[in-house]
Design brief:
about 55% strand; 6-stranded mixed sheet; mainly beta; about 120 residues; 4-stranded antiparallel sheet; Jelly Rolls
Length: about 120
């Protein structure tokens, strides 16, 4: 399973990294990853005009886009677009952070899984 990580380097610049989460064949029930310990879970809805300037993540967390997409820009200037169903691992809790804005002018819902 592919996910995208956002992290800060030693100079505080944020970057993207593509990760592959290994899945293990469990027969009839499908393929599962290893367990991942989590702390909390939150649901979030943002307004249609969501456009948040540079900020750091409040904690390390997975973000699952439940409906709607986002455009994220790292402090190093790279821009990527993520769509419904994609998963981000956000670890840039310090440094210059990243920008986030809705791809479409509609309310968007996400799931935050704190780790």
């Amino acid at each position: 399973m592919k996910i995208t990580k956002i992290f800060s380097d030693e100079n505080g610049e944020s970057h993207f990294e593509d990760l592959e989460i290994p899945l293990i064949d469990q027969g009839e029930i499908g393929f599962l990853s290893e367990d991942i310990q989590v702390k909390r879970l939150q649901f979030r809805t943002v307004s249609a005009d969501y456009d948040y300037n540079f900020h750091c993540a409040p904690q390390k967390q997975y973000i699952v886009l439940l409906d709607g997409g986002v455009e994220i820009e790292t402090s190093s200037g790279e821009i990527r677009k993520f769509r419904t169903g994609e998963i981000l691992l956000v670890e840039d809790t310090s440094g210059k952070g990243h920008k986030t804005k809705n791809l479409e002018r509609k309310e968007r819902t996400s799931l935050f899984i704190h780790i």
